[in-house]
Amino acid sequence: MAEEQVAAKQPKMKTVTIYVMGKKYEVPEGLTILKALEYVGYRLIRGVGCRAGFCGACTTVYRLKDDYKLYTGLACQTTIKDGMYLVMIPFVPAKKPIYDIEKLRPEGSVVISIFPELTRCVSCNTCTKSCPQEIQVMDAVQEILRGNIEKAAHMTFDCIACGICSMRCPAEIVHYHVFQLVRRLYGKYIAKKSKHLEEKLKALEAGAFKEELDKLVTGGPELWKKLYESREIEK
Amino acid sequence: MEKYPGYPEEFWESIEKVEETRDRRLKEVYRRISPEEKEELLKKWHPDYRPEGKRKLRIGPNKGDPVPNEVADLLEAHALINPDEISLNQIDYDVDILIIGGGGAGAAAALWANYSGVPADRILLATKLRFGDANTKMAQGGIQAADRPNDSPVLHFIDVMGGGHYANKPELVRALVEDALRIIKWHEELGIMYDKDEEGNFIELSGGGTCRKRLHAAKDYTGLEIMRVLMDEVLNREIPILEFSPAVELLMDDRGQVAGAVLVNLETKEYLIVRAKATILATGGFGRLHIQGFPTTNHYGATMDGVVMAYRVGAHLVNMDSVQYHPTGAAYPEQIVGQLVTEKVRGLGAQLVNAEGEQFIYPLEPRDVVAAAIIRECYGRNKGVITPTGMRGVWLDSPMIEIIHGEGTIKRYLAAMYRQFMRFGIDMTKEPVLVFPTLHYMNGGVEINVYAQALDAGGKPIPGLFAAGEVSGGVHGKNRLMGNSLLEINVFGRRAGIYAAKHIKHASVGKLTLDHVRKWEELLKKEKIETDRKAPILLPDYRGSRVLSRAINIGI
To answer: What are the structural domains of chain A?
Structure first.
């Protein structure tokens, strides 16, 4: 296809107005908050990480035109809107307690003993409403209080530790640290161990694959090629 | 109501064709192409085979070897620091083991060094951004380990060698496939939440180029789950972490050993001297160099710093000419162009189809083959879909997954992907997603041996220097298979930790020096390389051209 045909399909660039920490900038429509900040000249060190919604580094709070609400989101996953009034949160102060996972039991009371502020939850649900991952944060806290580690672990699995919930919580809970502990307790103590793995590992340590691998390592490209091209592929 | 609410009207006709052919395609298996066809496809369409994309290095242990221009630019560059301005008399951190890089390989190395008897306070982990800011967190699809009854490390070995075009170092591949089982066991003990069936066995899928179902996953947040658990354990063991403090140059001693590094506090700009008996490079790869102008799936910090620093102390690089383009980066919407659409989508049954709704490649061929086929479809056969920004792409027919495995599968096993597209109004359970190859992985890197020691051009270990993860090279040959990078960071991170702990028992450090940097500057002169480029670059610069054209340095 000719270049001009491709160009003809591209719409003209429109701009919108955003306010970065109160300062007004015109930026092209359709950018994410992160790219808009860079467009206007910020070279970020804090407040940027994976740029793909997985790392929770770019927590941003903002208001919209003629709207009293305070919104939260990830700068790399939120498209700018005209009149957006925003600031990036460079860091969430929340210290992680130290524990020895080997010495814990997978029980709600254990989690509460490490994070006693959990019992201060007033069920306001602000955490849930602020979560960019749409996790039922408040419900997960309640599951922990009821001692249901398994359920809480699964409910919070998609947490990226951006910390927005913890910044908004009136009970001062540090949810993402709590949820990290809960998931490890589930993974280590409640989830069943794999028998397949156990058996294969035993075979490996007993030297079951040693001879074949010895041969392969010194075998050279011709042998590898022959074996690779005659593989039987599992459906 | 609009027919396809997530897409502009120009796409609708093509999406209709995808829907019309879907029933037929559900029964259709595209043939696997022959080795000869593969070679021809790669030669003609894979970006690695474009001669204008590369040049021969003019300096250093790999002089004469072709590498991507963007890599050569950073290897043929001045040091970031002037050795005469750095005082080595004041040691800020004096440790046994310095780990540079806070991703999966760095965290695994820290833990295994500690398990091996090195006290936490004799280790320092320095990282450029936050601890855990790395490609590890972004890895979605899974981690390979041959634990199912019909599988074995032998089959895993053969897959890795074939996928890597037999350019792998076989002894590293052996370490990878054998340790895989030990790593997954370790992960179970740590409490990593892999997807399991009711008996506790792993739910495993096929990946591109694997002959068995071998991918262990934690939804499509596999890397995130591994990274956050490793981090939690490093923090519980109180291993010191120094964030926002990248290394800018390795230190050596007067006996030719690597003996630590010069770090820079990114926020205050002060430099810090770390003296160490062993230094482990775990700095990751080069996605943010945007080789050949490609968008990337990589983390903001993926700027190849470790390769640059290691090269100046004499490290040999392997397979640095080889770049992995992930076949399926998002091509629409613009906000997420280049971001990863995990191979797991194809593992679960989604086919790749062109604008006419026709398949053109078996979806689980190795990555380089699939990437080349997509590029051919878009630019050779003109059967791609053109986006409003002029990009081209092909369809990844995700709704097939819901038909094959039942409704709700995508939300359950591809939660991150579903969320990613929903944020921009595209429901991938009902509509296909548009994809095009994206820069994904540095296949090569610093050559290592099975002890994770960095090697010089003669194959001898560089005393005191270890490397693990994407910064290292050799294990993947010229093309990495899916699920082998999460494995590699654990396998070689672990080995680096164990063997560094062994190394320090009988090691001592002499007088610190930056003479290797002075020698490097002389070498640049001798080879008549005139440039104002400096490396490592530490971060990419995405500031708008309008601002940059008017930026002035006022010293504040």
So the answer is: 12-88 (3.10.20.30), 101-190 (1.10.1060.10), 201-229 (no CATH)
